[in-house]
Amino acid sequence: MSSDTLLHAANFSTLTMCMVLKFPQMFALMRAKSSAGVSLNSLLLELVGFIVFVTYQMYYDYPPPTYLEYPILIAQDSILLLLILHYNGSLRQSLLYTLLLVGGWRLLTVEKWIVDLAMSLCTFISAASKFVQLQCLWRSKDAGQVSALSWAMATYTCMARIYTTAVTTGDMQVLVRFVAMTLLNLWVLLTVLYYQRHGSRSKKED
Fold first, then answer.
1. CB proximity list for 26: less than 8 A, separation 6 or greater
2. Are 29 and 145 within 8 A, CB to CB?
3. How many Cβ atoms are within 10 Å of 31's Cβ, its own excluded?
4. Which of 24, 64, 78, 165 would bridge with 147, disulfide CB 3.0–4.6 Å?
5. In whole angstroms, what is the distance from residue 186 CA to residue 174 CA?
6. For helices 69-88 and 23-32, what crossing angle results, to 10°?
């Protein structure tokens, strides 16, 4: 398989998977009518990281196939945010979060140094979102309504993006981010699977 074919396959599979990446999590919440186990703060940090990342890529005119999935993920995360707020009984806060996120996005493009600084912090913001979700799982010792499938797909897409970034832009900041996100997504996935299995055993014993 040629490098071009492999690159196209990686881009296509990533985009396709990202189009439905958050669907399993949405369906899990709607089925249970509960957001138990899903961290609101983790989702907000993830949204901020996505917005910073896609803004940076667009600002420097990077090839659209290398970031095209992020607007889709932002849209899905926004819907997920509304679902969590709804099941938490805090839907009125959605307007405040919308204003803050849109205002922050507009601020990023005011000056070049702002978007550069934000990108340098992007990995830490995205990493923090994973650690917040992990803390939520460790605290409750229950996967709740967290979807293992969504986290598995997120792990794959970050792995694919390590390759596509390396052979297209070679941007070291972006590469470091994807490596870190792959490892952290995998950590969350394994933690969710552990608590799901542990919870299943407990129910059988009961």
1. 76, 79, 80, 83
2. yes
3. 9
4. 24
5. 18
6. 10
**Hey, what are 87's tokens?**
């099941």
For the record, the structure tokens of 135 come out as 């803390």
Instruction: Measure Cα distances from 122 to 35, 52, 54, 66, 97 in Å.
Output: 26, 7, 11, 17, 19
Cβ–Cβ under 8 Å, residues 104 and 48? yes
Give residues with Cβ within 8 angstroms of 84, minimum separation 6: 29, 35, 38, 40, 43
